[in-house]
Write a structure and sequence with these properties.
Blueprint lengths: L1 H13 L3 E3 L17 H10 L2 H8 L8 H11 L3 H7 L5 H12 L3 H9 L3 H27 L8 E3 L10 E3 L5 H7 L7 H13 L3 H10 L16 E3 L2 H6 L8 E4 L13 H10 L18 H8 L12 E4 L1 E3 L1 E8 L12 H5 L3 H13 L6 E7 L6 H9 L2
Antiparallel strand pairs: 1-7, 2-4, 3-6, 5-6, 8-9
Helix pairs in contact: 2-3, 2-8, 3-7, 4-5, 5-6, 6-7, 8-9, 13-14
């Protein structure tokens, strides 16, 4: 086994440590035990299906405390008063939703309840759905067009081939949302901008959403500012020149401000995936839900609601990333759950020597199940779990 693992790691490093730059499972939360992933909630919100969004937020989750399960069971029966009475204080979000729906029953109450969700957490739901679309488009791009640059791919519009450092996207405002949901890190500026939009959108939200469905001649809504990088489409001459690798290729996170590749996995593919998810049916979702126009226009419209709280510019993400400076070793003789590496706190407290001594002792032991210790450096917003899958699934 040890020889096979070492051989696989050597092969991965020889191939450049590359991996498909998927968003990891952490981005989507857990849907186990009947619960909903964050992307499911985001999809319902963007479609304007407020009752469904509320039900998904309040869906039961595997392993949750008994009192939480009891409150959610009461909600599933339609007994809002019993659900609110059973909900413990730590269910702050759920209690807020229940109070709002109790005060105003029906779809309108569900809408106001969901809009009362803290802005950064509400945006996290939408970003998760954008991330799901990106993962699906990335898989389709590699399946249909292979692992080399092709004519029609997107790259940064730079004088020379340049790599994108992680997510240069408005879909990266995850830091404040992460603080609320315990998920992942990212720049705070865009999330704060979205939060500012909430303050300005409250008064006009109801009027704008109703006018978008009743008057097709109304002026287009003003869109939120964004700062996406400039991109361009690869030509046949670019591909023939050989200066671009698969690591230069970008895929868009669908939004109102992105460009799409000019090949089989472009705007038409994004529109098809969204149509499968219930968009463009004329149902008047959060973004209007209109089914007319080009594929690119339809996708943009789904993320450019009159209510600025539901405007999402999108972004770009490298299709393939690579682990830099990978190192590994096999350790033996470790007790279950024994620490191997010193944490930053241990190092600051001078405890790194003890951890190193334990690791050295374990490395010299001849018994016990082997433990694989791997280290590498990733680009911003890449997922270690996704990188390791290249090794673990082989």
């Amino acid at each position: 086994m040890a020889a096979a693992v070492a051989a696989r790691l050597r092969a991965w490093v020889a191939a450049g440590g590359r991996f498909v730059n998927y968003f990891g499972r952490q981005r989507f939360g857990s849907a186990e035990g009947g619960g909903a992933g964050t992307h499911d909630i985001g999809r319902a919100m963007l479609r304007g299906d407020w009752p469904l969004a509320a039900r998904l937020i309040l869906a039961p989750r595997e392993g949750e405390p008994a009192e939480s399960a009891a409150a959610k069971a009461a909600f599933a029966r339609g007994d809002l008063a019993a659900a609110l009475a059973a909900a413990p204080p730590f269910m702050r979000l759920e209690r807020q939703l229940l109070r709002a729906m109790q005060a105003s029953p029906g779809a309108g109450g569900a809408r106001e309840a969901v809009l009362g969700v803290p802005p950064n957490l509400r945006h996290l739901y939408a970003y998760a759905y954008q991330s799901l679309l990106w993962n699906r488009l990335a898989s389709e791009r590699l399946r249909l067009l292979g692992d080399r640059p092709v004519e029609g791919d997107l790259v940064l519009a730079a004088a020379a081939p340049a790599l994108l450092d992680g997510d240069d996207a408005e879909a990266e405002p995850m830091a404040a949302a992460a603080a609320a949901a315990g998920m992942e890190d990212g720049p705070e500026a865009e999330a704060e901008a979205h939060a500012d939009d909430d303050a300005g959108a409250e008064g006009a939200a109801s009027a704008s959403s109703s006018s978008s469905s009743s008057s097709s001649s109304a002026a287009a809504p003003p869109l939120r500012p964004h700062s996406l990088p400039a991109v361009r489409v690869l030509t046949a001459a670019d591909v023939a020149g050989g200066a671009y690798s698969i690591e230069h290729v970008l895929m868009p996170l669908p939004g109102f401000a992105v460009s799409f590749p000019q090949h089989a996995v472009g705007a038409a593919a994004a529109a098809r995936l969204m149509a499968e998810d219930g968009f463009f049916g004329g149902g008047g979702g959060a973004a209007g839900g209109a089914g007319g126009g080009s594929d690119e226009e339809r996708v943009a419209a789904a993320f450019s609601a009159r209510d600025r709280r539901f405007q999402f510019a999108g972004g770009y993400r490298a299709l393939v990333s690579a682990a830099r400076d990978p190192q590994w070793r096999l350790l033996r003789g470790l007790a279950p759950h024994e620490d191997v590496n010193a944490s930053d706190v241990e190092l600051l407290r001078g405890g790194g020597g003890r951890a190193a001594a334990r690791a050295a002792e374990a490395a010299s032991a001849s018994r016990g199940a082997p433990t694989l210790l791997v280290s590498f450096t990733l680009a911003k917003s890449a997922y270690a779990t996704v990188a390791l899958r290249e090794v673990m699934e082989a």
